[in-house]
Amino acid sequence: STNDRARRCAAEGPGPLPLLIVADRQTAGRGRRDNHWWTGTGGLACSLLIEAAQFGLRRSRSPLVALAAAVAVVDTVQPLLGSQRVGIHWPNDVFVDGRKLAGILVEVLSKRLYVVGIGINTNNRLSDAPPELRRTAATLLDLTGTRHDHTEVLSTLLGHLRDELCLLESSSERVSQRANQICLQHGNPLTIQTGKQTTSGRCMGIGTSGELLLETARGRQEFFSGVLVHQR
């Protein structure tokens, strides 16, 4: 896992930051809540270890970091996919035409360090994926029939990510507004689990602080964290 490697570097003293860790294959890729993340041969996995002070990141804006990364991924892959619709599934996934193309895992460490982990299915194929993923995942290679240069993808991604992280200091609402605009869950029925409680409602988008907005039987509710247990 590139995130695990970034955490070890942080513990050992990483030296000058930001620090980028890249892998074409992971044997222990992780998603949120220790879910497994498949990085098939040819996929792209990277983690960026950053210091909050470098981007003026306040702890109150931590929920927006994952959305900023997701926006950066969307802006990176959309030009490669033409008219195919790419967007965000709150809180940390990028989907294209109903299938998951990329995932984000942000971890907040001590000493105000952040690990921003990003996995994109680039040059891997679904035919090599575990059977349970073949109906729900997507790869750039399968969608476009073209292999994509990882150096170019990374360079574009890091440029977009830098811009979005800088906006969190000066105009965080621009990040949340952009995330809301490309959120693919608008109007969909969702069920979110927080602890032992589940809440169902209709998605009303993403709020100014990165929260998920649900219109429920008890009125509109806001969720800054949680697990989506049902979505379509």
Approximately what portion of the residues adopt beta-strand conformation?
25-35%
SS-based structural class? alpha+beta
Spatial order of the strands forming the largest sheet:
1-2-6-5-4-3
Radius of gyration: 17 Å
Uncertain segments are none
Largest sheet: 6 strands, antiparallel
Number of helices: 5
Total beta strands: 11
What is the N-to-C succession of helices and strands?
A: HEEHEEEEHHHEEEEE
Describe this entry's structure for a reader.
The chain is an alpha+beta fold. The chain is built from 5 helices and 11 strands, in the order H-E-E-H-E-E-E-E-H-H-H-E-E-E-E-E. The protein has helices spanning 2-12, 62-81, 140-144, 150-170, 172-181, and strands at 19-23, 44-51, 86-89, 93-96, 99-108, 113-120, 189-194, 197-206, 212-216, 219-223, 227-230. The chain has a 6-stranded antiparallel sheet with strand order 1-2-6-5-4-3, with helices on both faces. Strands 10-9-8-7-11 form a 5-stranded antiparallel sheet. It is globular, with a radius of gyration of 17 Å. 39% of the residues are buried. The model has no long low-confidence stretch (mean pLDDT 90).
